[in-house]
Amino acid sequence: MTGSRVVALGHYQPERVLTNAELATMVETNDEWIQSRVGIRERRIAAPDESVDEMAWRAADKAIANAGLDVTEIDYVIVATCTAIDRSPNIAARVAARLGLGNPAAIDLNTACSGFAYALATADQAIRAGAATKAVVIGVEKLSDWTDWTDRTTCVLIGDGAGAAVLVADDDQAGVGPVVWGSVPEMSDAVRIEGREGPFQQEGLSVFRWATTQLPKIAQQVCEKAGLKPEELGGVVLHQANLRIIEPLAKRLGATNAVVAKDVVESGNTSAASIPIALSKLVEKREIPSGAPVLLFGFGGGLSYAGQVIRCP
């Protein structure tokens, strides 16, 4: 049975940097309050005319170039997002058009902050089933379109951007490990964007409590499915929701030798884009050795979660 592996990554973030100091002029908050609670110093905000599909295309184009592939070789495009404005065409179709692809399968997937891990697992399974050979998997969000900038409990969190991975068929079954995914239906309203205009809302304390108490054992299950002990991990890339969740989880998991992604500090919470952006930066800086096992784990709206171990490109 064919497996798959991630051969390259790419990311894109808007030019505009929104600092905590600037936010303090917009809403009642300050740098100390934000950093002490979520660890964020700054975030990137897209321009009004900078669309979700444009950011997704830029990240995907970079990932494909980094993979050394011709765009015509891509036969599957999957986009994880919860901030698309239009219902049709989907973001994946628009990205395929911008890239100049041939006749790829093109789908969108919405599980909010766990979206990239879900999309990666879905692409891996398509390749294993013989339905695709080379896929581009994208996480992208423009949360600034759906934010109430007078609500300090949410506006201090969000950021915009996109990250992408290129996945190819491979004989190595460990290139992308088995996914552990699920949801908590009774908490389905804990993170939400409802109606045509939103805004983004969440029960922050409930999510924090769930994440800090339940995630360590689920992350342990991901490692077990991959046939690894946490101390063997070379990297840990969690959904970049809150530094106060990321640091304790990595410690409780026992990933003592892993590089832990902390991109939330400079990018904020970019939902489905957070894992691929953070991983792309670590790979770009060669902070994780090629071939090292990396735990990816996303959680959020729904309340959905998903994780897998991949080999670092």
Provide a compact summary of the structure:
This protein is of the alpha/beta class and 313 residues long. 33% of the residues lie in helices and 26% in strands. Helix 4 links the parallel strand 4 (76-80) and strand 5.
* Fraction of helical residues: 25-40%
Rounded to the nearest angstrom, the distance between the terminal CA atoms is 21 Å
What proportion of the residues form beta strands (DSSP E)?
Answer: 25-35%
Low-pLDDT sequence parts: none
For the sheet with most strands, the description reads: 5 strands, mixed
Q: Using the alpha-carbon principal axes, give the shape.
A: globular
The number of distinct helices, counting runs of at least 4 residues, comes to 10
Strands of the widest sheet, in order across it, are 1-7-6-4-5
Q: Secondary-structure element sequence?
A: EEHHEHEHEHEHEEEEHEHEHHEE
Going by helix content, strand content and strand pairing, the class is alpha/beta
Radius of gyration of CA atoms, rounded to a whole number: 18 Å
Average residue-wise pLDDT: 95
Number of strands: 14
